[in-house]
Structure formats: structure tokens, C-alpha cells
Amino acid sequence: MTYPKRSLAVLGSTGSIGTQALDVAARHADRFTVVALTAHSNRETLFAQVRAFRPLLAGLTDARLTLADVPDDLRFCRWVFGPQALTEAAALAQAQDVLVSVVGMLGLPSVLTALEHRKRVLLANKEALVAGGALVMRAAQAAGENMLLPVDSEHSAIFQCLQGAGGNPIRRILLTCSGGPFRTWAKADLDAATRAQALRHPTWAMGAKITTDSATLFNKALEIIEAKHLFHVEPQQIQVLIHPQSVVHSAVEFQDGAVVAQLGTPDMRLPILYAMAYPERLPTGGAPLDLFAMRELTFEAPDPVRFPSLRMAEESLLAGGAACCVLNAANEVAVNRFLGLDGGMAIPVGKIYAVVAETLQRVGHLPADDLPAVLEADRRAREVAASLLP
Ligand code: NDP
Ligand code: MG
């Protein structure tokens, strides 16, 4: 079977996911045309990408930048500046697929815009789904079957396990988790851990925000919420397994007890390219998995005391309304501070847990029925979370 060439917009093209997507797009130039690229402020990388891929639209979301910052030879495409670059790229008529790989829930409007324009969304930006789960799933359903494809490795694994399942219901999702750099740390040491310690991820090389989330297990907390929406399961059907080797990317258990898993090396190019080429499978350029080289594959239960993030996700799902949006916003604010991005006083890991828990409690129940309600809950949670920082 031959598949037609697809046109792709990449939102957040200069990031860890964005650059890997362009790597596989270049490897398969006969299959993908890149029609839009956006970055925030990393101009030099974006300029090099625009030179290489010659898109129709390029955007810099940092509102301080203008066309005067763009070299003359790169003005052949349409340039958009400020946050609207994301929604304009998401709505571009010539784009069939939109890879949303910006970091943070600020990607939500572009996810909704792309789906409203009947574009296939390749979703790396899990924060958008966590904050606006019901809205995104409603828009995805209206857009048609398989119009929202997961890029997150665990959710891609689950999606792959469901291919050929013939609509059989899921009994459980086994969501694997590397455990991060603090997997074996005592609670007191973990709570006192710093930015440099959190940024040493044992198996995956990723952007700073998700690397921090992987250390606190807020990444897995967000992924529980993500899985609940994508695969229409109840929170109690999702079991998190600490699997430090990051080889089993997740699994699905069916009613007869059969467990179907997807295995591979920890290389994001596989789930990225699987979403880009779906349903075709193309070579990623990565080394094949060598099971003989694996001394062992281990699985253990997460420790809810040292890592309270998982429980916060389960409670937020049960609370409903905008609770998951509030959890995500508080985490974004705390992680920004933890990473030293807001210029404030440094905080340790323990403070991230404290800020999220306290914000959830103080904000209480808010609705999440439409985009304005979600944006308002996000704004309110950010205000409360910021007030809790030193
Ligand atoms: P990075 O930090 O590496 O990249 C983020 C991208 O978003 C960059 O292109 C950046 O532009 C852009 N960006 C930053 N701030 C803004 C803003 N305010 N407005 C618009 N664009 C902005 O992140 P990752 O690639 O690691 O992660 C992207 C998303 O994918 C996240 O939601 C993450 O959770 C998810 N994900 C990532 C995985 C990974 O392996 N990295 C795995 C699974 C999911 P600039 O370079 O100019 O700052
Ligand atoms: Mg993941």
C-alpha cells in the first residue's frame, strides 16, 4: 500500500520534540512537507529550520520580535509574531497535520483551532489535554476518527496496543514510568533536591519542564489524566508501574487477561514518526531494541508518600470541573520558579508539591465547560500559586 505525502505544521519546532520531528521529516522528505514552523524566542534555530524546510508560514511567539529581526533572505514566507502565531499556524489551509509540541497549556487554543479546522493533531503538548480535556476530546470527536494522535511515548504505546483490538474494551492500562532521578531517594533528600539534581534524567533527554515533571512524577500525574481522556477509562483502571529501564512503553490489559505491550528503545522519534505517518510505520534512524543486551526488566509500585503527585491527579479527576486545569497551572508556576525562569527566589522539589496541593485546596471547585471557563480557572490557579511562592 502506498500512502500520500502529508503536509505538516510544527508548533514548537525548536524544542526537543520539534527538532526530532524535523529530523524524521527530513529523513522521509518524500513523505512529509513542512508548511509551518513556530518557536518562541530561539530565532537562530528557527531561521536555520526555515532555510532548510522553506515553509509557507513561520512564527515567533515572543511578542518583542518583529519582521525587522528576520534576515532578508527568509522573508519569502509569511511571518507571524506574538502568541497568535500558534493559532495561525494551526489554522493554515495548506497544513493537513499539526504537531503541537510547545510546552505548557498555552498550546490549548491551537489544539482546538487545528481540530476545528479538521486537521489531524499530533499531540505532544499534554498540558493542553490535562487543562482542557473535555473540550479537546469534544473537538476531536467532532473532527472525526483518529484526528487526535498521541505523541507522548506511553500514550502512543497504548494507542499502538489498541490497533487491531477490534473494539474490545480495555480492562486496565499499565502506564509505565522510569521513576526519574529520585526513584531511590529518601523523602527528606527528595524534598530538598535542586534544579541541577532534577535535570539529570536517567533514560530520556527532553526539555527542562518535562524533565522536572519526570523527577517529581507530576509528568506521570499529567499522563494519568491524559490517558483517562484519550482512552475513555476510569482513573482506577490506570495502574502506574515504575520501570526504570524505559523499554516497555506501556501496555493494555483486555478482559481475558491478555496484556499487550509496546517495547522499544527510549527514542522519541518512534512515537513522533508513528503519529506523523499513521497508520504507516517508517524507519526512524534509531538503533533497534536489543533484548539480549537487557540484563533485566523490572516493575515496582510507585511510592505515594515520596511522590504525592500521583494521588493529586487521581483526586483532581474525581473532583471534576477545572481541578485538573488548576493542578496543571499550579505545577507550571512552581516549575517555572524551580527552573529559575521567573527571576524569583529558588525553591526545592518539596515546594512544588506544597504549592500544587495548596493551590488545589484554595481554588476549590471551578467549572470547565468552555474555553473561557478553562482559561479563567488557569488564570486563577496561577494567581494563587504565585502568591504561595517565596
Ligand atoms: P522544549 O522546552 O524542548 O521545547 C518547547 C518548545 O516550545 C520550543 O520550540 C519553544 O521555543 C516553544 N515555546 C516555549 N515557550 C513558548 C511560549 N511561551 N509560547 C510558544 N511557544 C513556546 O519542550 P519539549 O519538546 O521537551 O516538550 C514539548 C511538549 O511535549 C511538552 O508539553 C512536553 O510535556 C511534551 N513531551 C515531550 C517529550 C520529550 O521527550 N521532550 C516526551 C513527551 C511529551 P523556543 O525554543 O524559542 O523557546
Ligand atoms: Mg511520557
Structural summary, described in words:
- Helix content is 43%, strand content 15%.
- The chain has helices at residues 16-27, 43-53, 84-91, 108-116, 126-131, 133-143, 153-162, 187-192, 195-198, 208-216, 218-231, 269-277, 309-319, 323-338, 349-363, 371-387; strands at residues 6-11, 32-39, 57-60, 78-81, 97-100, 120-123, 148-150, 170-177, 238-242, 248-254, 259-263.
- The protein has a 7-stranded parallel sheet with strand order 4-3-2-1-5-6-7, with helices on both faces. Strands 9-8-10-11 form a 4-stranded mixed sheet, with helices on one face.
- Helix 4 (108-116) links the parallel strand 5 and strand 6.
- The mean pLDDT is 97.
- The protein has a domain at 6-150: Rossmann fold (3-Layer(aba) Sandwich).
- The protein has 390 residues and is α/β, with parallel strands linked by helices.
- Helix 3 packs parallel to helix 4 (108-116) and helix 11 runs parallel beside helix 13.
- It is globular.
- NADPH dihydro-nicotinamide-adenine-dinucleotide phosphate is lined by residues 12-18, 39-42, 61, 101-103, 106, 124-127, 152, 204, 206-207, 209-210, 268.
Small molecules in complex: NADPH dihydro-nicotinamide-adenine-dinucleotide phosphate, magnesium ion
Give the biggest beta sheet: 7 strands, parallel
| N-to-C series of helices and strands | EHEHEEHEHEHHEHEHHHHEEEHHHHH
Q: Number of helix segments?
A: 16
| Share of β-strand residues | 5-15%
CATH topology of the domain at 6-150: Rossmann fold
Helix content: 40-55%
| Uncertain ranges | none
**Structural class label:** alpha/beta
CATH architectural group of the domain at 6-150: 3-Layer(aba) Sandwich
Round the mean pLDDT to the nearest integer and report it.
Answer: 97
The total of beta strands comes to 11
* Major sheet strand order: 4-3-2-1-5-6-7
Query: Could you give me the name of the CATH homologous superfamily of the domain at 6-150?
Result: NAD(P)-binding Rossmann-like Domain
What Rg, in angstroms, do the CA atoms define? Answer: 20 Å
Shape, principal axes of CA atoms: globular
Report how far apart the termini are. Answer: 59 Å
**CATH class value of the domain at 6-150:** Alpha Beta
